[in-house]
Design a protein that fits this description.
This protein is mainly beta. The chain is built from 6 helices and 28 strands. Helices cover 13% and strands 38% of the residues.
């Protein structure tokens, strides 16, 4: 009886596949040969659900439906669930006629704990009005041909949720945005995302990108190109764990709004920065751990390096630059133009010194001075300087009486910070209480993009 039921089940599956393929020409599958279940919704034939051998067969089905000569059908939605490990080879996945290519409607791929193996150079090209969502637990591997896993035009979107691991070649890009079409690009990943690639996100203008998860990249986690104006500024929000072995972890060109809400960012190669922002951008750092490995005679290797006309607000975090050519650690920050950043450090720990300034980005700047530190720290915060290693600790809130607060007393031992706090009266304390965290966080953005 069990064998009979199984045979009947296989017969039903085969009939379903054949009936759907009456005009669609997808490869017939049955039983264990069916690795993919897909629901295709179109403007003329409505919704059809069937099983397919692989993802390329779903693409073939869509091409046949969308490409019939007498009445071309618009595909409006595709829902895919992996029934087993599956592949996408030879052709990119598309929702229009194969001669045109690209994803032009909502497409969802549910991995269901399985692996999707990619063997095509540019598998997912999201066009205007299209979206791609990859979710569930599982793996996406593209270690043979793929150069960019997901490319997204303006008015398109990509989202990945759940515990999805993406393994790409160390020359490949995970997600790239373009400036084709109109509108804005939307890209979102969550904490369950794990990626190995050359570049995590190659971002052009008009993009809204939210990055979370764990990334091991040969070059960069985020690379933002030079935008032409405020009108097309990209908005990048990051809370991730990322290690780069070849370039700056986060590298941002002009007219970008970058907000870092915690995470860990380590530049493992000498002379590279954890975060480098160049020209006319606004940066807000709300915590996180930023580390560079080492510098050279050129003085590169900062936790955070800010070029000209970059406005930054730092509300917390730990910042450690690399060891310079003279055997001493570089200060935690490089800021080319100090006036742009006056009073914008609210809190944070700046190991081995707070700031170098005065030269071109990537060259060793002047070391800490009391004036530079005093200019950087907000009047609503206090700071101490360790006399032995130069570490600057900034805390939000006005200082208390140093005679009553042991933490602010002059240094008496090797492990105690020397006294160098900003001291304010009771009025300063009231002002501090009146300032909301939202107001502080928005300072840099309001100045640069008003």
């Amino acid at each position: 009886m069990k064998n009979l039921k199984r045979m009947l089940g296989l017969l039903v599956v085969s009939v379903m596949a054949i009936s759907v393929m009456g005009t669609a020409r997808a490869e017939v599958c049955s039983g264990e040969a069916c690795h993919v279940k897909a629901t295709i919704v179109g403007s003329k034939k409505g919704s059809e659900t069937a099983t397919y051998g692989d993802l390329k067969d779903v693409a073939a089905e869509i091409a046949a439906r969308a490409g019939v000569s007498d009445a071309t059908e618009k595909i409006t939605k595709v829902e895919i669930t992996l029934l087993d490990d599956a592949t996408l080879a030879d052709v990119a996945f598309h929702t229009v006629n194969s001669a045109t290519g690209g994803i032009t409607c909502p497409v969802t791929i549910n991995l269901g704990g399985h692996e999707l193996a990619i063997d095509v150079a540019s598998p997912f090209d999201v066009k205007k009005g299209g979206s791609l969502t990859i979710n569930g637990s599982g793996e996406v591997t593209a270690t043979n041909k793929a150069t960019t896993l997901v490319s997204v035009d303006r008015s398109g979107s990509f989202k990945t949720t759940g515990k999805v691991t993406y393994t790409l070649d160390d020359t490949a890009t995970f997600v790239a945005t373009t400036t084709d079409e109109s509108g804005r690009v939307t890209v979102t990943t969550d904490a369950g995302t794990t990626v190995e690639a050359n570049v995590g996100f190659d971002v052009k203008a008009y993009a809204d990108v939210t990055v979370a998860g764990t990334y091991n990249v040969a070059d960069q986690l985020i690379k933002v190109g030079e935008n032409a104006s405020k009108a097309n500024a990209s908005v990048i929000n990051v809370n991730a764990k990322a290690t780069s072995t070849g370039e700056d972890v986060i590298s941002v060109g002009g007219y970008t709004k970058l907000t870092i809400n915690g995470g860990e960012y380590a530049a493992d190669l000498a002379n590279k920065n954890a975060v480098a922002v160049d020209a006319a951008s606004a940066v807000v750092i709300n915590g996180g751990d930023f580390k560079a490995t080492s510098g050279s005679s050129e003085g590169k290797g900062y936790a955070v390096a800010l070029g000209e006309d970059v406005e930054a607000t730092i509300n917390g975090g730990t910042f450690t630059s690399g060891e310079g050519s003279d055997g001493e650690y570089l200060p935690a920050l490089f800021i080319k133009t100090m006036p742009k950043n006056k009073g914008n450090v609210i809190a944070g720990t700046f190991n081995y010194g707070m700031v170098a300034t005065g030269k071109t980005l990537g060259e060793q700047g002047n070391p800490d001075t009391d004036k530079n530190i005093a200019n950087l720290v907000a009047t609503t915060s206090t700071y101490t300087v360790n006399k032995d290693n130069g570490t600057v600790v900034v805390k939000a809130g006005a200082a208390s009486d140093p005679e009553k607060d042991p933490e602010n007393k002059p240094s008496t031992g090797d492990d105690q910070p020397s006294e160098n706090p900003k001291t304010f009266d009771a009025i300063g304390s009231l002002v501090t209480m009146a300032i909301s965290s939202l107001g502080v966080v928005g300072t840099a953005t309001k100045k640069m993009f008003k």
